[in-house]
Amino acid sequence: xxxxxxNGGTPLRGKVQISGMKNAALPILVASLLTDDVCVIxxxxxxxDVSLTLSILEKMxxxxxxxxxxxxxxxxxxxxxxxSPVELVSKMRGSTYLLGAELGRWSKTKVxxxxxxxxxxxxxxxxxxxFEALGAEVTVDKGCVTAAAPRxxxxxxxxxxxxxxxxxxxxxxxxxxxxxxxxxxxxAHEPHIVDTANFLNTCGARITGAGTDTIKVRGVEKxxxxxxxxxxxxxxxxxxxxxxxxxxxxxxxxxxxxxxxESISAKLEEMGVLIEEYDDSVxxxxxxxxxxxxxxxxxxxGFPTDMQPQMGALMxxxxxTSYLNETVIENRFKYTNxxxxxxxxxxxxxxxxxxxxxxxxxxxxxxxxxxRAGAAMVIAALAVRGITEISEIDHIERGYEDxxxxxxxxxxxxxxxxxxxxxxxxxx
Length: 428
Ligand code: EPU
What we know:
Radius of gyration: 21 Å
Distance between the termini: 12 Å
Largest sheet: 5 strands, mixed
Number of helices: 14
Number of strands: 24
Bound molecules: uridine-diphosphate-2(N-acetylglucosaminyl) butyric acid
Strand order of the largest sheet: 21-22-1-23-24
């Protein structure tokens, strides 16, 4: 097991290079299955969710070869439908994309029920609705999702009852080689939806409208392989922006698309953080106090739920009362209990967390209860004086490439220690 030990209170200064986006990498890696060909994916983040996805593809028969640290070649010609191992699939929400990709390539699929961060019930009813509209019969039984369209999938209209990232991606994956045209209404707009559509189009798909409410997919006979670079991770970038703000630091955050960061930048500016935008970087600094703010999460281009816990950490440090309303994910406030261990004054009422900021925080033993919750604990720990120990950091490793190295390079006093239940064993 591993822990992070952070001795906080040092302003972060310097430059952080952002990696490729987790939530684009996962669908794109899985979508390579649709090509029955060889794809080279670049700007791939070195995170455990990506390694897990590559392992699943390998177990399915794909030939996977790392060309460099962030470039992978996937030959999906030998892949076998329905062969993804349940024990791997059940560790990650992104494995839902196997359903759409298998259906798209073989008109049938069998995949274990997906896992991922524990936010309570994470239904896939909208994914199933899309598959059924395309002509598949779907059953969910004994922790497994099975679907088949013996007469093939046909273009149709899919209207989502709610905005779903995974559902939108899966509707694209399943329909890309269906007969005729599919129109996906009330589609998610996230940059990773656009990136996935761009990847598929580079492989010969005919998808238009990605990034808007309505996506049109004109079915093609076959997709070919391609070389494709994943977009930068706006959530990783936003996390370092919060870390700069929390520590009164000054960071240049490079390899970003500033347009994707607009809702995060706007909120941080409201809190008194100074942000300068350049072509592919942002400079983030703070000299005055952090000001209280109200915030509601929304689908893109609204404020991302994946930045909600990190903003919660900042709200603890701001003078006054901040209200943080979560509208996208049912249960994403578990981290507030961990912030309380550091002295934060926060209570959750329904879907809103209320932070009475400005109470003195101090280092404590806390847990990374999920991926972004872990990021929030890191931000709080970097800001406060004293030692914080963060356990269960495998959650953080799912989505942040070399967090320790990147933070150390900008002055953080952070260590990764490996331990067993009884004793510390080693220091990385
Ligand atoms: N929902 C349904 N039915 C569905 C699909 C979704 O009720 O069929 C509900 C979910 O339970 C949730 C909401 O709709 O309450 C939004 O779910 P969505 O489908 O948009 O999310 P997702 O595809 O499961 C992706 C990201 C999450 C991110 C959300 C929202 C991946 C692998 N995961 O999840 O990322 O929070 O979109 O933007 O792309 C993270 O990176 O930390 C993370 C959790």
